[in-house]
Amino acid sequence: MGMCIAAPEKKLGYIHQVSDSWRAFLLLSLCLQLASWTLVIYWSRSHWNNHPISQALQAHIQPSHPSWGSVAANMNTEFRRIDKFATGVPGARVIVTDNWVLKVTTYHVYMALQSECHVTVTESQQHQLSPDLASPAQILTFRVGSINPAVKPFDIRLNSTEYPELREKLHVPIRNSANVVIGHTISELFLETFRAQVDLNQPYILPSGQEIEPCIGCMQVPANTKLVRLCHIEGSDDDSECQQCFCRPMWCLSCLGRWFASRQDQQRPETWLSSRVPCPTCRAKFCILDICIVR
User: Do 142 and 155 form a contact (C-beta atoms < 8 A)?
Assistant: First the structure.
């Protein structure tokens, strides 16, 4: 019908006058329409039970979720939470919730239950995205399999810088079958050194009767750090720029380390450990010697 309007000189509206090639084109168009509607009608039967996504959901039916609709409702509930892990381009999104590993592509949704799946690193690729980058980007490929025979294995890809966040969200161990070396970012190396240095500092004894609250940064682990001005005791410099912080323990060591790193000159990582940053709560300046683990 569109070609009848776009090319009226062809007189395509008169089927008996057109050539065999145009008749074949019309037959192909009608067959595509018929096949498409037949497929849609087949999918919609029995409340869309034959649709590929609903069939993938049916593989996860359990006594607690007796239908694929309840499985989808549970998945939607977890997807709305802010603590999920999500990455990837719109055509291949990777989402990890408390109980699900999802890969959302343009035409399908791959899913695996965390309690039934196993994740394996299968490949690593180096990409020099631009000459300005200090190091190339490392893209990791993971194979997500399941002990459920109805769930087909699928691959997910993400940057190595996102690997620690993925590992933290997954409840299953990640295997490395190809002996892939996963590179550490500067921030990860700094956090390891940061933790080691803080462990050497004097601990802070929590007063009796005071309760430890959850970290206000991640709200997942207890706040286990306290800022106490100790650098004037550790060193001989009495003119230290550090200030006394009177905040109660409010941050965990990981969140405080990330805050410390985020306030540094990213082009000069060699100065990070010797720098001073403001307290994220009261803005009193402190250095790494002033961070005490709460006992």
Answer: yes
Q: Which of 31-35, 122-126, 162-166, 209-213 has the highest mean pLDDT?
A: 31-35
Q: pLDDT per residue over 35-92, tens digit each?
A: 999 999 999 998 899 999 999 999 999 888 899 999 999 999 999 999 899 998 888 9
Angle between helices 253-262 and 186-200 (to 10 degrees): 120
Token output for 287? 């250095």
Q: Which residue has the higher pLDDT, 104 or 127?
A: 104
Read off the amino acid at residue 164: P
Rounded to an integer, what is the distance from CA 204 to the centroid of its chain?
A: 34
Residue type, 106: T
Half-sphere exposure (Cβ direction) of 295: Cα atoms closer than 13 Å = 7
Burial of 163: CB neighbours in 10 Å, binned 0-12, 13-18, 19+: buried
Strand-pairing partners, residue 143, are: 120, 155
Label residue 236 left, alpha or beta by phi (over 0 means left) and psi (-120 to 50 means alpha). Answer: alpha
Q: Give the tokens for residue 234.
A: 């550790």
Q: How far apart are CA 129 and CA 136, in angstroms?
A: 7
